[in-house]
Amino acid sequence: MTVPSDEELHELAGRVGERLREARHRLVTAESCTGGWIAKTVTDLPGSSDWFDCGMVAYSYEAKQAMLGVNPHTLEQEGAVSRETAVEMVSGALVHSGASVAVAVTGIAGPGGGTEDKPVGTVWIAWKGRGGYPRAELFQFAGNREAVRRQTVAAALAGLDAL
């Protein structure tokens, strides 16, 4: 994936917004490694209040547990950057909001924090509609911290566009 520009992110968010507005859905974001960048991209768009409910930035283990209901056992056994954590984050975002569609991201943006099993650029993204089953996908992005985060925002929005 190439590193998207702000313009490309806003274009993608606009497409997502139109689809959500037409379907009368509202979006919630649960973000770790992006630090609220998905919510910022969405709310940069005029009229996003028609389809955006809220964004939750849960960076620490404690915040993931308190805000999103992530099980402490999941974090201890699988780690914050795992399919299981992403799925619990996306499900918790729906439980703790009035939204009908959710996206969650958790990953290692770098430059530190990577391991042999989970190198810098490892990101899990999960999507879920209220009443549906979550879908999660593993990504391995390249580049510096900003590049990893930009690619994560784009992949998260693209996944919403495909719902």
From TrEMBL:
Coiled-coil spans in chain: none
Top-level lineage group: Bacteria
Domain CinA C-terminal positions: 11-161
Pfam families per UniProt: CinA
Name of this chain's protein: CinA family protein
Organism this protein belongs to: Luteimonas endophytica
